[in-house]
Each structure stands twice: as C-alpha cells, then as structure tokens.
Specification:
three-stranded mixed sheet, three-stranded antiparallel sheet, globular, binds protoporphyrin IX containing FE, membrane, monooxygenase activity, iron ion binding, Cyt_P450_E_grp-I, Cyt_P450
C-alpha cells in the first residue's frame, strides 16, 4: 500500500517516450487546449513549473533521472510550500509546510479526508477501492476502518497479540545470531527486520503460525503485487494504454496468483470456524471479515475482497516498520554514544532479563530515539494521496476535486523554522525536553510520519510498539558496528515502496555477554 508516486525513469522508457511525448503533445494540443483554457481560467491553482502541452510536467519528472521525492525537494526553494505539477491528465498539488498540512488535514479535515480516483491496476487490487486506505471518505471507509481499529489495533486488542510479537522477536534474535556466525559476524538489517514484522502481521491476520515455506510464498507474492502496482505512464496518459496491453495482462495474472495463494488460507479458516470442535487457532483479522457488516451494503465481503483486505493489513505495516528499523541501526552505528546510552537505559530498566514491551513506557531515552528516528527518517516521504470532497481554497488557491494532494513529509520535519539543527540526528532534543512535537497533530503539526487528521495511520500504536521493541531487543543482544570496518555509514536514500537506504545496511554485530 505504501506508495511510490512515480518510478518511470527507467532508461528504456526514455527514448520511446520522448518521441511519443512530442507526437502525442502535438496531436492533442489543438484538441484539448481550448477545453483546458476555459477550465483553468476559472481555477486559481497553486503555481508550478511550466510544463509541455497535454503531458504537462510528466516527462520532466520522468526524464529528470531523480527519484520523485528529490524532484520535489529541488522545487521547494523556488515554488514554496504549495505548488502544482501537471502529470498528464492528473493534476498533482504538493503541500510541504506544517501550517498548510494542519489547516488542510485537521482544521478542514473533513473536506480533505478523501482519496482520488485510482488507476486501473489499483482498482483491480483494491477490489474497486474496498480497502481502508483507498476508500473515498464515506460509509465504506468508515465501516472498514472501524473494524480494523476496534478489532485489531486498539490498545486492548493490541495486548492480545503480545505472544505473536514475542515469538517473532525471539526468532529475529536467533536468526541474527546464526547469520552472524555463518558470515564472520556480519548481518543484513532490513531483510531480518522485515521478516520479523511480516511474521507478526501474518499471525495477526490469519491466526495461525505458518511454517517458513509458507511465509516465503506469501512474502514473494506480496512483493510481486507491489511491483505491478508501480504507476505506469498510461496511468497519467490513458491515451497510451494500447501500448501497455502486455502489462495489463500481467496485472490480471498477478491478481489471479494473489487470490490463488490466499483463498485456501481463508477457506481453511472458514471451515475451522464452522466446525468449533476442531482446534481453532487464536483470534485473527480474517475472523472479523467473514461476517463484516458494511454500511449501505447487504452482503458481507467476498473472497476476493477478503484477499484484498488481508493484503492491505499485512502490506501496510511491513515495509514501513522494517525501514524504520534499518535507519535506526544505521544511526546507532554512526553514533556509538547514542547506542551506549540506549544500552545503559535498557540495563538499568531490566537488568539481566529480556527487555519486554511492558518496559517501554519506563524508557524515555528509547522513546526519544524512536521519535527522532521518525522525524529524520519518515519511512514514507509522502502521506497517502488525499483528495477533497468539494472544491475548497487553501493558501488563497483553489483545490479542485479529482486532484491528487501529496503531503511532502520531510518538508515539515526538516523545516529550520520549526526545528533547531534539523539535519542533525539528535534524540536529546526530545529527551532533554528542548523540543517536542505532537505526533498525532492534534495541537499542531511539526512532524507527521503517520499523517494527521481523519486518515491518520490506524497502525500508529502498533507500529510504535514494533519499532521500539525491535530496536530494544537488537541493542540489548548485540553491539553494532560499521561494516566494512571503520567505514562510514552511507545515508543516501532510495525510493522503493518506502524510502530505504540506497545501499542496504550490513553491519557487524558483537553478541553482548
Ligand atoms: C512505522 C510504520 C508506519 C508508518 C510510518 C505508516 C505511515 C502511514 C501514513 C503516512 C499513512 C497515510 C496517512 C494519510 O493518508 O494522511 C498511513 C495510512 C495507513 N496505514 Fe500506516 N504506517 C505504518 C504502519 C502501519 C501499520 C502497522 C498498519 C496496519 C497493520 C498500517 C495501516 C495503515 C492503513 C490501513 C492506512 C490507511 C488509513 C486510511 O486511509 O484511513 N500502517 N500510514
């Protein structure tokens, strides 16, 4: 689900589409320019870089060779906290200041709480927007979100899944030990963190402990889905869709595979529930979906819809959380003094026993490290795309419906007007109380790694527990060093489904005794 806006800068596209761009522009310019003119006369859109006829800024973005977040970052000094990019037939408005985010998502929250039109691939995978993240603001969204929050993510429900977390944490530490032993003390960070959180979410979703083979199968399938969900050029220029029939077939094929992988799990659980004498596993997200009542609809979700909802649950929390842990370990390696301060707090709090989630509240330094982590490295650089329910004004500009609204998160959490030395990773800013931020954005916005307002990430509390727990266990069990020895950590970013480290982090670990 967490979302890459555009990644169509692959070289092979370059030549073909430059040529196509010129042709298409010329052909359509005369057809559409009149219509465009009358429309934009009425609207006072935010400023933005001048684009080409019809295709707008699409090819400038695609041919820039930069990841989308970098393209946006480079435009900020020139165009300020709200600007427009025309991406073919889609209009995108990028918002990057705390004040405007607060005004839109909190003060005018109801109007800004919707989602835009989806591209055809996303329509297929979201079962026509039948997910919490893709549903427009309305009764379906309310039903699905309420179900997910009340039955899975509320504080009391979260406690019920403690043992799934413990099992996954122990497994994580075991895997790190054996990987280190087999590789001269060196481990991959992202891969292991990802596996751990994936295990937790699978157990919560399906209510069963799966063997490694099954976990691997589901994981591979999820990755394939994320790849075909990458936006394509024809999503922005539907007129080009005849050139993408192969890709569309592939989409159908992958959707079929997704259904074929997950429906047997769903059916197995359905049978277990129908036959209470069998040893039914613990409560799961799946159980909440079988008879789910949706406002305004008579039928409960179909199997393909359940596949979609389960995938959302698992995808929403996997890469985001694992990414946070990778950046955290990178920062611990870069700053041995922060690492040892954290280790000292763990020792002081739990002595020789294993650190557990009940300890987290009494560990203010850990909490400060995690908050600073989410400020400096929000796992996604854009919140999910918003849309308004009716035309409104923001910062003196018109925001039409059917416009993609993108909130650029580092624009807020790196703002030198809001933070002292924003480029510095410094947990003490929170620990010593010099600075603070309401991460929910209720009293104001200074950072919003989970979004704010009605669409705020419903997994916020669970994600925070997962990140805290993983970091605490990993620092308690090992001391972390750079690899290669004495090397500097490379903090360059790369856009995957989240913003990960360009060179996936490898680290040398010393088990603590
Ligand atoms: C560190 C981990 C995570 C981060 C940084 C994160 C971040 C976000 C962000 C930025 C949004 C968009 C908010 C908006 O549209 O304004 C979002 C939405 C969402 N997240 Fe997360 N998330 C994380 C973990 C999770 C987890 C663990 C789950 C659930 C299992 C989850 C499920 C969702 C869902 C369902 C939405 C859509 C909400 C809606 O549209 O109403 N996320 N998340």
């Amino acid at each position: 689900m967490h979302h890459q806006i555009i990644s169509i800068s692959q070289c092979y596209h370059t030549i073909i589409f430059t040529a196509l761009a010129v042709l298409v522009s010329a052909a359509l310019f005369f057809l559409l320019s009149r219509k465009g003119k009358t429309k934009s006369k009425r609207l006072n859109l935010p400023p933005g870089p001048p684009g080409w006829p019809v295709v707008g800024n699409l090819f400038q973005v695609a041919l820039s060779g930069k990841p989308f977040f970098q393209y946006v970052r480079d435009l900020l000094p020139k165009y300020g906290p709200i600007f427009t990019l025309k991406m073919g037939t889609r209009t995108m408005i990028i918002i990057s200041s705390a004040d405007l985010a607060y005004e839109a998502l909190v003060e005018k929250g109801q109007v800004f709480a919707s989602r835009p039109r989806e591209n055809p691939t996303r329509i297929i995978f979201s079962c026509n927007k039948f997910t919490v993240n893709a549903a427009v603001y309305g009764p379906v969204w309310r039903s699905l979100r309420r179900n997910m929050v009340q039955n899975m993510l509320s504080a009391s429900k979260l406690r019920e899944f403690k043992s799934a977390r413990e099992i996954a944490m122990d497994k994580l530490i075991d895997r790190l030990h054996s990987e280190a032993e087999a590789n001269g003390g060196v481990v991959w960070v992202l891969k292991n963190a990802r596996f751990a959180v994936f295990c937790i979410l699978l157990a919560m979703c399906f209510g069963v402990e799966m063997d490694e083979q099954m976990i691997e199968t589901v994981d591979q399938m999820m990755k394939t889905v994320l790849i075909v969900l990458d936006p394509r050029l024809d999503d922005y220029l539907p007129i080009l869709s005849p050139f993408f029939s192969k890709q569309r077939k592939r989409v159908q094929q992958v959707r079929k595979e997704q259904i074929e992988t997950l429906v047997p799990l769903i059916e197995k659980r359905r049978r277990q529930k129908a036959n209470p004498t069998s040893t039914a596993a613990s409560f799961s997200y799946l159980d909440t979906l079988f008879d789910l009542k949706i406002e305004g609809r008579k039928t409960s979700p179909t199997n393909p819809e359940i596949v979609t909802l389960c995938s959302e649950f698992i995808n929403g929390g996997t890469d985001t959380t694992a990414t946070a842990v990778e950046w955290a370990i990178a920062r611990m390696i870069e700053n041995p003094s922060i690492q040892s301060k954290l280790y000292d707090e763990i020792r002081r709090t739990v002595g020789d026993r294993k650190v557990e989630e009940k300890d987290m509240e009494g560990m203010p330094y850990l909490n400060a490290v995690v908050k600073e982590l989410l400020r400096k490295h929000p796992p996604t650089y854009f919140s999910l795309t918003h849309a308004v329910t009716e035309r409104v004004r923001l910062a003196g500009y018109d925001i039409p419906t059917d416009t993609n609204l993108e909130f650029f998160l580092p624009g807020i959490s790196d703002d030198p007007m809001l933070w002292s030395n924003p480029e510095k990773f410094d947990p003490d800013r929170f620990f010593c109380g010099r600075e603070d931020a309401d991460i929910m954005g209720v009293t104001g916005v200074k950072m919003m790694p989970f979004g704010v307002g009605r669409r705020i990430c419903p997994g916020l509390s669970m994600a925070t527990v997962h990140v805290n727990l993983m970091i605490a266990r990993m620092i308690q069990e090992f001391e972390w060093f750079a690899y290669p020895e004495n090397g500097k950590v490379d903090f360059r970013e790369k856009l995957e489904f989240t913003v990960v480290m360009k060179n996936p982090l490898r680290a040398r670990v010393n088990p603590r005794v």
